[in-house]
């Protein structure tokens, strides 16, 4: 077919180092793009199981000069991935497509100004194949592509067409904790708070992606502390109340849930919980949850709000000698001095439960992150007892053997000796089981006797 012919022609051009080959490659890729956009048969030939179409396109992007015709090849790849779905994205990842696209992104960013259409295509592709590649965060950091998307967002806040795919890529990058810390130091948290804001029906898709990205970033304790220091906990509560009061038809439940996810992430640290209490967050979430109880579709909002309130409610020691406790009781022994006595002498409204959620910093190395899952699988608990004899509970009789003999008549099968009849002498003989006997024991009938 024509598609197979063009692919073979493009494969030959990739082996040619002549400068004129670039013009030929651009001409061939434009024809391939036209075919896959206009003919279903061409798309199937490009993406069929035994086809090498995706490999040829990727090798073309890797070998040839970038500025001549890469836009056409990327457009072909973009159309195939967006049209044919996830399995093709996995193929691109296995063929090394992530590395190639990141290198193209770095090369394209050196132009001043960068080609907007090309940037949109590259970021859309990376956002699509990113979830299929578990190491995309590390690859982006090594290639120097981590801050390219962030800088594009900073300089194009009003350009929705470019900002949306860039935020989608940042959301993929933020799943890596090292990347989240690095992006936070470069001001991504402050930038995202410029995008999210009060209720507005414009750009709701951008708002949703920005909230998802922010929630992923705030899982880092460093970014969460930065958000608390900037006073963003109060801002998130204000945004949530604004969306709750205006979204009377509940069309934007996902955005409201995205705000709650951000609050949930930032309250993972003690400073965030304290800022939440100081901002009257308990009352706000309680009142909004009461309004949502009548609508079944808003159960995710109620559940998330409940998790946040349970996490942020002050924790106290037992017993509670205050009105907070339904019961008043004393421990059997209370030390006169020492750390325990100091705890029980504290005022009743003090959160006296040890909380070291803020003690650990985000100083994780990339190797630790990559091997985290493998370590969990290989790790063995030394506390698990493997001796079967020790695991068996010891059964001690409540009475002696002599006392139990009085019940012997009720359980004769435990003490009597089973016998079988000798067919010759017609007398019972002691039963001796055969060690090699594998089948069931057959008892002779009266007719056989």
UniProtKB/TrEMBL annotation:
Keyword Protease listed: yes
Region (Disordered): 345-395, 429-449
Keywords: Carboxypeptidase, Hydrolase, Protease
This protein's record includes keyword Metal-binding: no
GO MF, one example: carboxypeptidase activity
Biased composition, class Acidic residues, residue ranges: 349-386
UniProt xrefs under Pfam families: TPR_CCP1_N (PF25571)
UniProt signal peptide: none
The protein's name in its UniProt record: CBPC1 carboxypeptidase
Domain of life: Eukaryota
